[in-house]
Amino acid sequence: MTASVSVFATATEMSAALKARSVSAVELAQDAIAQIEKHDGDVNAVCVRDFERGLDGARAADAALARGETRPLLGIPMTVKESFNLAGTPTTWGFVAQKDFIASEDALAITRVKDAGGVILGKTNVPLGLGDWQSYNDIYGTTNNPFDLGRTPGGSSGGSSAALAAGYGALSLGSDIGGSLRVPGHYCGIYAHKPTFGLAATRGHLPPPFPPLPSGRELSVIGPMARCAADLGLLLDVIAGPDPWQEGVGYKLALPSARHTALQDFRVLMLDVHPLIPSGRSVRSAVEMLAANLTRAGVHIVRESPLLPDLAASARLYMRMLVGLLAAGAPPDAYATGVAAATKLDPNDSSLKAERLRGAALSHRDWLMADGSRTRLRAQWRELFKSFDAVICPVMPTPAYPHDHEPDQDKRHIDIDGINHPYVDQLIWPGLATLPGLPATAIPVAISNEGLPIGLQIIGPWLEDHTTLKLAELIEREFGGFVAPEGF
C-alpha cells in the first residue's frame, strides 16, 4: 500500500482513503511525523512528541479497519493541546515548577478521542497558564506562525493552530475562555469551534498538580480545531456529552439540528465595528467581502439591529467576570494587591482596564449581581436569535501581530492601522460569545496584503452548535477555506 494522501488532507478525506484502503493509518501517521520533523524546528508547535505510542495506535487502527470496524476518528493522526492530561506525558501549562509533572491518566476528552480511534502524535505548545494570545513559555520556548515565523500563531491553543496550518495531523483539541480556540484559528487560517458552555466535559483539563476531577469552571470550554468545517463537527460529536462522574450535569448529545441546510435560507447579522475598539482595515475588508459574497448567494444579510445587546456594557461585564474568575485562584498577596488597586478607582471610570481591576476584587455578592446581569444578557441574545440564525463578526481587530513578550500585558499595545490600543482590550471580540456561553465557529475568509490569514466568527443560539457549524461548512463549500502556508 502506498501513501497517496496529502498531509494537508482533512480528516474526512483521510477517513475515506482509509476505508478505500488506498492508504494505511501507519502511513498517515508516518507522513505527519515526517512533516513535524521537517518543519517543527522553525515552527515549534509540537512541544511533547509521542510518536512511538502514536504509531502503536496507528497499527491498532489498521488492524481494526481490517476487521471492518468503523469509528469516527479511526486512524486519523492528530495532536492535542499541552493543557490536556495525556497519560505518561508532561502537563505543565507552561509553569516551570510543574515541568516534571507527568499525568497518570487521560483527560476525559482524550479517552473519548482514543475510543473513537484517533491517533495522537503529541501535545502542542501553550502560553504560561494559558493566559495569552501568544504561545511561549520558559519550558518549551516560542511557537511561531507558519505564515510568518516572526508573528504569533495565537493562544492559548496556538501550538494546535500552528500544527494544523503546518500539516501536522488533521485535527487538534484546544480550549477557550478568552478566544483561545478562535483567535489561533483566525491567526493561522484554520477552523475552530467554541462549543456552547458545558457541552463538552472538561475533566482532566486543569493545571497541575490539581487532581483530574470534574470541573464546572465558569466561561471555559474545550473544543475542536481542524482544516475544514465538517471536521469540527466530527470531533465535537466525539468529545461532547456530560461527565459520567457528574450525574445530571451537562448536555446530552441530542442537540438540535442545524436550522437550515441551504445557504440562502440563513438570516445573518454581520458586524464589523465595536464601540470600544476599532477593527483594522484588513478585517473590515474581509467582513465586507464575505457580506457581498453571501448577499450574492441569496443570504439575508442585515448590518445592524436594535435587538443586538449593548456591546459596550457586555464587554465591561465580561471583563469583570473573567478577571473575577481568574483572580479567585491568585496567591493571597496578588489578590490583596488587586483589591487595593480596585479600591482606588474613580467610580466614574468605565474603561476596560478599570473593569478588569474591579473584577480582581469581586465579592461573592458582586459575582451574583454580575451573574444576574449575564442572565438578562442571555435573554437578549435569545430574542435576537428569533429574528436571526447567526451573527458573523471579527475574532480580533487585526491579523497576527509580531511576537511581543513584554511580561506585563498592560504595557503591551496592539497596532490597529497605525494607532496603538491596549493589548488586553482585544478580549472584547472573543468575549461576545464567551460571556453568554454561546457557540462560535471561527472560519478563514481572506488573506491580508501581508499574506496573513483573516478569520471571522459565526456566533449562534444557545446549544445550536450545529447551526454555526453548518453555516461554516456552506460558506467553505461556496467560497473556499483553508489555504496552506508557502513552504510547507
Question: What does this protein structure show overall?
Answer:
The structure is a single chain. With 488 residues, this protein is of the alpha/beta class. It folds into 2 domains: 11-239, Amidase signature (AS) domain (Amidase signature (AS) enzymes), CATH 3.90.1300; 263-440, Alpha-Beta Complex (Amidase signature (AS) enzymes), CATH 3.90.1300.10. It has 14 helices and 15 strands. It has helices spanning 11-19, 25-43, 51-66, 108-115, 158-165, 182-188, 229-239, 281-296, 311-327, 332-343, 352-360, 364-387, 428-434, 465-479, and strands at 46-49, 77-81, 119-124, 136-137, 141-142, 171-176, 191-194, 221-226, 267-270, 300-302, 390-394, 413-416, 419-422, 440-447, 453-459. The chain has an 11-stranded mixed β-sheet, sandwiched between helices. The protein has a two-stranded antiparallel ribbon with strand order 4-5. It has a two-stranded antiparallel sheet with strand order 12-13. Helix 8 links the parallel strand 9 and strand 10 (300-302). Helix 5 packs parallel to helix 6, helix 9 packs across helix 13 and helix 10 crosses helix 11 (352-360). The two termini are 24 Å apart.
